[in-house]
Write a structure and sequence with these properties.
Shape: globular
Number of strands: 35
Oligomer: single chain
Number of helices: 25
Helix content: 25-40%
């Protein structure tokens, strides 16, 4: 029987719906409330809370087709018929309802009566001691004993440490002797003849710390069937990659490159890597992941870069993966029509990441090749840790990519040496922090000690800015002291305080501590070991432990800070509305003067996007929505839909800050009572702080009023200097810019005429090296465009030859290389030549075989670089 991937998925879910199962959509690839895994990597992963009893399932029987990502064996993806980073797992689950008999008989019914697989080709494995499963397979299903194989723990018992576990039973399909007759082509072997198509896990035991297996009161069923694998059998193809779930991607690559899929082993691997990886990348980005240098973002970056590198083996030198997203969308439309909604967003993210990586890929590979050549000369096969670290630290080449490239060339990496170099760098960073006075863990011990003595500081600053508190401890230079006197700086810890301690990006409060004639100014408040610590300068009198004093927060600073904090929440929601739900906070700073908000996004915001965000935030401010705060449990807060930060650690009780229907976030900071108190909101800058991380700085309230006044002064001053009015200032500037362009054109024209007058002299400077005419020349003050034009003119004068021109412009080096067509056909490549030449001047570049350009920093090395060009031609 033949089925498409969509038909197989539907048949499975329909079958189990008929058996009383609730059919749920695939959970997102990003786990919810499960920091133990980066990705959903199995059908049961989203249901952990149901299996361990933390939550009650909506129904005791559930079935899904679950998107999964696994990268533990990524090096095998593309090199085998069935390894994938992204795949779908069909699964049916029972939470304390049915058990072995139903799981086994329904599995057999589905594969034989729905899929129509030949019974004679099906083999069963069970755990060696599972007589109950054997009895069901043999006596209920009717399989002969010889087709039921008992296996050991390694293959047929599921457990991870302590806790729920149990035996499993697998269904294997015999594809026939034509797929292999080796010793591995047996049930449970590594050969291609027998395919495991379904694993039935019977969770019936609870493994204790002592190694005992105690029966579970409620037994569960967890099964998994690989969609792509079963599709390969039903469609009669040799591998998962030839199924209709993946083959259209192979067809795209073949048509796009003009290379046949099965041209050789290397092309098969490259096609498969790209096809597999673009599926995973597409779905991961759809579910909210973005490339970065940490966590799941790094996984996406690694997968994407691996695909790009294999694309290079097929001749791709420009971004191409993003053009495959519509193919993925079309293939998966039957199961995931929602992909279409984010297709453009996914393409934009992928293209941006491809462009970034391609800028460093050629240089990195070139350096690796040089290192490999050095190893060959020394007859060694292991790249040193120092060299691997140089590739990582200087050129941005991650260790796993270096390792994979070298393995393909038959070399290894000294990973232990790499780790030592990494540790050296960390040690240097630690030393640098110490040199500038970084407070390390030793300095924090005093606070931990005091916490044991004091237990806690009560914060009442949400309700009051003025309150009495008793001094519990005094500190000075990291030591507990008995007194702080006038003129001294130190730290005061109170039993009760209205001062907000720096947390969640919001700075600490400032204010005064007073007891009669004793006065201290609080210039900062910070949280240390859960204690609120007031950093003070004593202005009058003295302070001692046990003293009761008046603690008063500066209200204007607190209100300004609250305006900016509330605006941060509105900004977060607006960014999600304008840019997409993938936007999440990655850092923030809230002060009285301004707010800073870091978030994940793949590109700079356009002027239109910034304007839409500003307009949305200001509309909510004008709507004067109520700002309400409730304290509740973390679970209830998430049920309410409150936005939380994935990396943040929350207690059992949390504060939910709601601004009308627009924003709802978990937050411990201080806020306005209604959005109208914010006044007005203005973004003053948008920039990049790291790959995939953007930063917005904004101002509100009185800070914005000061900003507008300053901008008005600048406009008035500029108008006075240019002798015009503010209304005509732009026209005046445009007139001056037009005049500047005219003058620049005149200058360039004069440069071209001067260069043209030198044409004959330059042509006469050509040298004959190994039968090749080579012209190298250093010129002064010529920009890229002028240098290219001169190169083209020289090329017209030379029937055959290579031209390398260098220019010193504003203390930077510009190179242009040209190669005539006849020499390109002989293997000379302008891009490769100019790359090596520019390297001498501390730069790099590349381009086409016939024309390329590059840049450098060391103008004093221009002569040496041009001499290198002669060596390259001489040694070619």
């Amino acid at each position: 029987m033949t089925m498409t991937g969509d038909e197989l998925r539907k048949a499975y879910l329909d079958f189990f719906a008929s058996k009383g199962h609730l059919i749920l959509p695939s959970a997102p690839l990003i786990p919810k409330d499960d920091p133990s895994i980066l990705w959903i990597n199995a059908g049961m992963a989203p249901f952990k809370p149901y299996f361990d009893g933390r939550q009650t399932p909506p129904r005791k029987r559930i079935a899904t087709s679950q998107k999964c990502i696994r990268t533990n064996d990524i090096e095998n993806v593309g090199k085998t018929d069935r390894h994938h980073t992204f795949f779908e797992m069909l699964g049916n689950f029972s939470f304390g309802d049915y058990f072995k008999k139903e799981a086994i008989t329904w599995a057999w019914e589905f594969v034989t009566e729905v899929l129509k697989l030949e019974k004679e080709r099906l083999w069963i494995t069970i755990y060696q001691d599972d007589d109950e499963a054997f009895d069901i397979w043999h006596n209920t299903v009717g399989l002969p004993e010889e087709r039921i194989l008992r296996m050991g723990k390694k293959g047929n018992f599921w457990e991870i440490g302590t806790g729920p576990c149990g035996p499993c039973s697998e269904i294997h399909y015999d594809r026939g002797e034509e797929y292999g007759t080796s010793e591995e082509d047996v049930v449970g072997g590594e050969g291609d003849r027998f395919l495991e198509i379904w694993n039935l896990v019977f969770t019936q035991y609870d493994k204790t710390e002592d190694g005992e297996y105690l029966p579970l009161p409620n037994k569960n069923i967890d099964t998994g069937m690989g969609l792509e694998r079963v599709a390969s059998i039903l469609q009669g193809v040799d591998s998962n990659f030839e199924t209709d779930l993946i083959k259209p991607l192979l067809d795209f690559i073949a048509e796009d490159t003009g290379i046949e899929y099965r041209k050789n082993e290397e092309t098969v691997t490259a096609f498969r890597v790209i096809a597999d990886h673009i599926r995973g990348i597409t779905f991961a980005i759809f579910d909210g992941a973005l490339p970065s240098n940490e966590g799941r973002g790094y996984v996406i970056r690694r997968i994407l870069r691996r695909a790009v590198r294999y694309g290079g083996q097929l001749g791709y030198q420009e971004p191409f993966l993003y053009r495959m997203v519509p193919v993925v969308t079309k293939i998966m439309a039957g199961g995931y029509p929602e992909l279409q909604e984010k297709e453009e967003h996914i393409q934009t993210v992928i293209k941006s990441e491809e462009e970034r990586f391609l800028q460093t890929l050629d240089q990195g590979l070139s350096i690796i090749n040089e290192m490999v050549a050095g190893l060959k000369e020394k007859k060694e096969d292991v790249l040193s840790g120092a060299d691997a670290f140089k590739l990582y630290d200087t050129y941005g080449f991650p260790l796993d990519l270096t390792k994979e490239v070298l393995e393909e060339k038959g070399f290894k990496v000294d990973e232990a040496g790499f780790k030592k170099e990494m540790e050296k760098q960390r040690e240097r960073a630690r030393q640098a922090r110490e040199d500038i006075g970084f407070s390390g863990p030793e300095d924090e011990k005093i606070y931990s000690y005091l916490k044991d003595e004091i237990e806690r500081t009560d914060f009442i600053g949400y309700e009051s800015l003025d309150h009495q508190g008793r001094i519990m401890a005094l500190l000075q230079e990291g030591q507990e002291v008995d007194v702080l006197k006038a003129g001294e700086m130190g730290e005061i810890i109170l039993d009760v305080t209205p001062f907000y301690a720096e947390s969640g990006g919001q700075i600490g409060d400032k204010g005064l501590l007073r007891d009669g004639n004793n006065l201290a100014r609080v210039y900062d408040t910070r949280k240390k070991a859960e204690l609120s610590v007031h950093f003070v300068r004593v202005q009058e009198g003295e302070f001692r432990p046990g003293q009761t004093l008046e603690a008063k927060v500066f209200p204007d600073i607190r209100k300004a800070t609250a305006r900016n904090h509330s605006a941060t929440h509105l900004l977060h929601r607006a960014l999600k509305e304008v840019l997409g739900e993938h936007v999440n906070q990655s850092g923030s700073l809230v002060t009285a003067d301004r707010l800073r908000f870091d978030f994940n996004h793949f590109s700079a915001l356009t002027e239109e996007e910034i304007a839409r965000v500003e307009e949305m935030v200001n509309q909510v401010i004008l709507d004067n929505l109520p700002v309400e705060v409730v304290e509740t449990s973390l679970e209830k807060a998430r049920d309410m839909g409150a936005l939380s930060l994935f990396e943040e650690k929350y207690g059992d009780q949390v504060r939910v800050v709601t601004m009308g229907e627009f924003s709802k976030e978990l937050c411990g900071g201080t806020h306005v009572h209604s959005t109208g108190e914010i006044g007005l909101f203005k973004i003053i800058s948008e920039s990049s702080v790291a790959a995939g991380i953007r930063r917005i700085e904004a101002i509100t309230g009185t800070g914005l009023l000061r900003y507008l006044n300053q901008q008005g002064q600048i406009v008035n001053q500029a108008s006075a200097i240019l002798k015009t009015t503010s209304g005509k200032l732009i026209d005046r500037i445009n007139t001056l810019l037009d005049r500047q362009k005219e003058l620049e054109k005149e200058i360039n024209s004069l440069k071209d005429r001067l260069a043209s007058s030198k044409l004959s002299d330059l042509v006469n400077q050509t040298e004959d090296i190994n039968g090749v005419r080579l012209l190298t020349a250093e010129l002064k003050g010529m920009d890229n465009e002028a240098l290219r034009r001169l190169s083209d003119q020289l090329k017209e004068k030379m029937d055959s030859g290579i031209i390398i021109l260098a220019s010193n412009l504003q203390d930077k080096v510009i190179f242009v290389a040209s190669v005539t067509r006849d020499l390109v056909e002989k293997g000379y490549h302008a891009g490769k030549i100019i790359g090596r030449v520019a390297k001498i001047t501390g730069g790099g570049g590349g381009g086409r075989p016939d024309m390329a350009q590059a840049g450098g920093q060391k103008i004093e090395k221009i002569g040496e670089a041009l001499a290198e060009a002669k060596k390259i031609i001489a040694n070619n």
